[in-house]
Amino acid sequence: MESNIIRNITVFGPGMMGSGIAQVFAACPDLRVTIFIREKFEYDCMDKIAANLAVLTEKGIMTDGEVEGIFDRITLTEDLAEAVRDADFVIECIPEKMELKQDLFKSLEPLCRKDTIFATNTSVMSITEISEKCGDKARVVGTHFWNPPYLIPLVEVVKSGYTSDDVLEKTMELLKKAGKHPIKVNKDVPGFVANRLQHALWREAISIVERGIADAATVDEAVKFSFGLRLPKLAPMENSDMVGTDLTLSIHSYILKHLENSTEPSPLLREKVEKGELGFKSGEGFQKWTAEEIKESNDSLREYLIKAIYNK
Ligand SMILES: NC(=O)c1ccc[n+]([C@@H]2O[C@H](COP(=O)([O-])OP(=O)(O)OC[C@H]3O[C@@H](n4cnc5c(N)ncnc54)[C@H](O)[C@@H]3O)[C@@H](O)[C@H]2O)c1
C-alpha cells in the first residue's frame, strides 16, 4: 500500500449491496474501484449504479460530470488475479454463507499483497469466524453498510478477535474519506450495534400487537409521532442523560420486568410466515398492502432519506 494510503478498492459480489458500495468508493476522486465479475449477469451492476446516480442527478445532488467521473473510476474484470493484484482494500458482498466468505478470502490471500485489507459486509455473521481460514487473520475487518449504501451514512466497522488496530484505523479513515459515517464496534457480537438496537424495538413492537395492546398501524403511529421524530437529534444514551440517570433507573426498575424478553421469534411472526403473509412480498404481513401503497412506501422513504441527508 503506497505510503499507507488506500487507493485501489476491489469489490466482490456486485449485487444489491456490492454495486452501491462500489459506487460509494468510486464517488471519491482519489479512489479506483475494480469489480470482480464472476457471472455474465453481474455486468448489470453498472445499470444499478446508473439508476442510483440518476436519482442523485435528478435531485441536483450530483452533476453529469461527477457521474462520468464515477464511471471512469470503475473497472470490471473476470480475471481474479487481475482484480486483486493492486488492491489495497478488498470488500466482499457475496451471499450470507459462512463457507463462501471464508473460502473467498482464503483464495485471495496468495493473489494479494501482504498488507491488503479484507473487509466483509456480512449483516450478522461473526467476523472472527469469517477470518478463520486466512493465514493472516489480522487483516480481516467487518464493514457493515446499510441499505441503500449510497444513501445511508452509517458503516459499522467491526473488530474481530484478530483484527489489528492498524487495519481498523485505516478502514475508518477510508470510509470517512468516502463520505460515510463509520463507527467502531469493539466486540464481534451478533447484530453489532445498530441491529441489536433495531431488533430490540421490533421484538417489543411485535409483542404489543400479539398481546392485543395495539394493532400494527397504531404501533407504528406511536413511534412516528413521538420518539421516532426526535431520534435523529436525540438518541437513547443522550436522552437518558437528558432526563437523568436517576429517572432512567426509576423507570427501568418499574418497567423492565413487563417488557418482552423472549429469546425466540414471536409465535405471531411464525404464524404469519407459515400462512404466506410475507408483507410487501405477498401484499399482506402485519397489515394489508396494495401495489400503490407499496410503491408509495418505497418512494416516500427514498424521498425522506434524500431530504434528511442532502436537504434536497
Ligand atoms: N440486502 C441488505 O439489505 C444488506 C444489508 C447489509 C448487509 N448485507 C449483506 O451483504 C451481502 C450481500 O447481500 P446482497 O443483498 O447485496 O446480496 P445479492 O444477492 O444482491 O448480491 C450477492 C452477489 O454475490 C454474487 N454471488 C453469488 N454467489 C456467489 C459466490 N458463490 N461467490 C461469489 N459471488 C457470488 C451474486 O452474483 C451477486 O452479485 C450479504 O452478506 C448480506 O448479508 C445485505
CATH topology of the largest domain: Rossmann fold
CATH superfamily of the largest domain: NAD(P)-binding Rossmann-like Domain
Give the CA-CA distance, first to last residue.
Answer: 38 Å
Number of self-contained structural domains: 3
Bound ligands, named by name, code or SMILES: nicotinamide-adenine-dinucleotide
Provide the helix percentage: 40-55%
Q: Mind describing the biggest β-sheet?
A: 8 strands, mixed
Per CATH, which architecture of the largest domain? Answer: 3-Layer(aba) Sandwich
Secondary-structure class = alpha/beta
Give the tags.
312 residues; alpha/beta; Rossmann fold; N-(1-d-carboxylethyl)-l-norvaline Dehydrogenase, domain 2; 3 domains; 8 strands; binds nicotinamide-adenine-dinucleotide
What's this model, at a glance?
The chain is α/β, with parallel strands linked by helices. It folds into three domains: 2-185, Rossmann fold; 193-264, Orthogonal Bundle (N-(1-d-carboxylethyl)-l-norvaline Dehydrogenase, domain 2); 275-312. Helices cover 46% and strands 12% of the residues.
What does this structure look like?
- By secondary structure, this protein is α/β, with parallel strands linked by helices.
- It has three domains: 2-185, Rossmann fold; 193-264, N-(1-d-carboxylethyl)-l-norvaline Dehydrogenase, domain 2, CATH 1.10.1040; 275-312.
- Helix content is 46%, strand content 12%.
- It has an eight-stranded mixed β-sheet with strand order 3-2-1-4-5-6-7-8, sandwiched between helices.
- β5, α6 and β6 form a beta-alpha-beta unit.
- α1 packs across α2 and α11 (236-243) crosses α12 (245-255).
- The radius of gyration is 21 Å and the shape is globular.
- The model has no long low-confidence stretch (mean pLDDT 96).
- The structure holds nicotinamide-adenine-dinucleotide.
- Residues 12-18, 38-39, 42, 93-96, 100, 121-123, 145, 147 line the site of nicotinamide-adenine-dinucleotide.
